[in-house]
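Review form for a predicted model. The reviewer records the input and the model, then writes brief findings.
Reviewer: anonymous (R2)
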Amino acid sequence: MRVSPWAHWSFAVVVATAVTTVACDAHRDDRRTRAPEVAPRVAGLDAEASQMLAHVPVDTPYVWLNAEPLPDAYVERLAGLRDATLSGWARALDERTDDPELAALAAELRGRMNPAGLRALGFATNPRWVLYGLGLAPVLRLELDDGHRVARLLETIDAADGTSEVRTIAGHPVWTTSDRSHGFAGAVAIVDDALVVTIYPRAVEAELLPIALGVASTRRSFARSDALRVARRAHRLLPHGLAMLDLARIVELVAGEGDALERAVTRAWGIDVPQSTCAPALRQWIARAPRLWAGLREIDTRTIVATTIWELDDGLRDDLRGIVAPVPGQRRGDRDLGLASLGVGVDVGAAVAMLERWRDDDRLAACEDLARGLPDDPPPTWVTDLRGASAVLHDWDAARGRPSGVVVLGMDDPLAWLRTTTPSAALGPLRRRGHAAPLAEVAGNAGGSWLGEAWVARGRRALGLAAGDGARRSVARAVDDSSRDGDTLVTWSLDLAGLRALVPERRTRDDLEWVQAWAVLDAARRVRGTLEIGASGLELETIVDLDRR
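Model under review:
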């Protein structure tokens, strides 16, 4: 019989998670036979990565590529997370013994969910891989150390219930799901020294599988496009974990366009085509923000820098730059941001005006569904007067259950803002800029007992509130005029080492999420990020400072 759904998907998920999300080690056996080069070399990539891209259509709606094995030192640095992931999957498989094929998979992997064991099974434990779309159908192509050994593993699993059936396409073994109660199907295949996994509508299986396996040629391939080289140079991306999401192409496919196979995939998925009045408006707006790129800019034993860029046209970038405000209470380059921090640099009034312009755009007004998503009534004045905000949690008193931190709001006239929002407030203590006053003197009886530990201060364009240890000093410093400015919309940080120290007891849980969470906390010291308006569009950058042990 064909591979059961549980065994099929468990095998695919376990393998993909184990050897793509967390590379197992830096071992690569270069003695194995390489497939002959069938694609032109892509600028900046080696022959193996270029061949992988040769299977990707140039107009794929998405692609995610690991073009080079991860650096050895980085892989070893995250060995704890690797081991936690592998052991977690091993435990999960051992619990699924009701399916004979799944039990066989668990037996084959038992004691081998480690780098040496996976290599013995034929897997490359620091592989190249690519995930892409044939239309909207995903295809994963994963580099193996020895395709013959992995094929034997699949044959053992397939025969666990006493019968065995394997299809061949152009001489390559293929296993497909046997449950026909669903409209979609999946396949796992070995093509030379590559594992190919795909999910697709069952109605297009005969046409799609040969293309997914690479035995039938696709149209002009991604390898012959200059898009990857241009994006890597423009966005400063490393060859590890490169990703592209083409929103404009997805809109086309959902609208029923594309070649015969792509149209058949879309129809079989049962995706609703937008109403005709909305399609032109949606296309015109997506054309202004057509695609996203993501990847790594730095990766070593101390730091990981990841980025996502949403490409925007000049008009949208100008619109967004028009709503940027300084982030009050934070300075550019600040590293002492407590246990957690969040800063927002948005002029709320300008943002509301921008949304109103968009709502009045004829292209958007033609589609009621899109226009309905924008607010009709403007927010109150005390909200539109805000010019950014920030919050920093400096510490947490576990015994009393109370935080130490500061919140800062930006506005043009702090005293006038207070008069509007809190008419009963006593403004006398805040007449002098930068002077911290007890919140009880300002708020009177408007608050609770915690007012005695809180302090408030105003700057020229900021109002701050702080509580806990050092509150008086921290709020006076936070409202000065040295706010973080530039093109920053959002900034945030988490001190993982400090948060880990607050947990009184390290517990051991059986679930994979808990084990992985502890492994991340053990590996990383701080995570920080920014959302900024860059040269190409919106740019989200995340920096992980690894624990230096």
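Findings: The longest strand covers residues 386-397.
Further findings: Residues 423 and 504 are 44 Å apart (CA to CA).
Recommendation: see findings above.
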